[in-house]
Amino acid sequence: MSNKNKILALLASLAVLFIFFTPVLAETNSNLGNIIPCEGSECGVCDIFKLISNIIKFAAFTVAAPLAGIIMAYGGFMLITSGGNETNKSKGTNAIWAAVWGILITFGAYVIVNAIIGGLAGNSIYQSWYQFPGCE
If 0-12 CB within 10 Å is exposed, 13-18 middle and 19+ buried, where does residue 50 land? Predict the structure, then answer.
């Protein structure tokens, strides 16, 4: 089996695992997620904004940050084990830079989205944008 096929098989396996474990993250009683802030008919307008906030925080802090750490560790491993091989050395360097740029873009987008939605909500930068007047 070639390297491309091995990587595709690994990615497909991870995608299937992600699909199977995603409902666990949506459970309100789960310690993993608490993404959905309400249950059934008790949901209101305020809960929509809380849901958006939870999804953004989950994507930025629960998925992107650990993934960047794993990619950086892989890049460091490639650099350490390159043994002077320029191809592996450049692969490791590229992996580290990709992780750095990815995390900068992710957290930059998080800050920009928070600033824009907070401005539209009329809140100062220190207030949560999903806590409108009338919402707890």
Answer: buried
Neighbours of 60 (CB within 10 A): 17
- Confirm whether pTM is higher than 0.85: no
Q: What is the pLDDT along the chain (136 residues), one digit of tens a residue?
A: 677 777 888 888 877 777 776 665 555 454 445 777 777 777 777 777 778 777 877 888 888 888 888 899 999 999 999 888 899 899 999 999 999 999 999 888 888 877 777 777 666 555 665 565 556 5
Long-range pairs, 59-68, Cβ under 8 A, ≥24: 59/106, 60/106, 60/107, 60/109, 60/110, 64/102, 64/103, 64/106, 64/107, 65/103, 67/102, 68/99, 68/100, 68/102, 68/103, 68/106
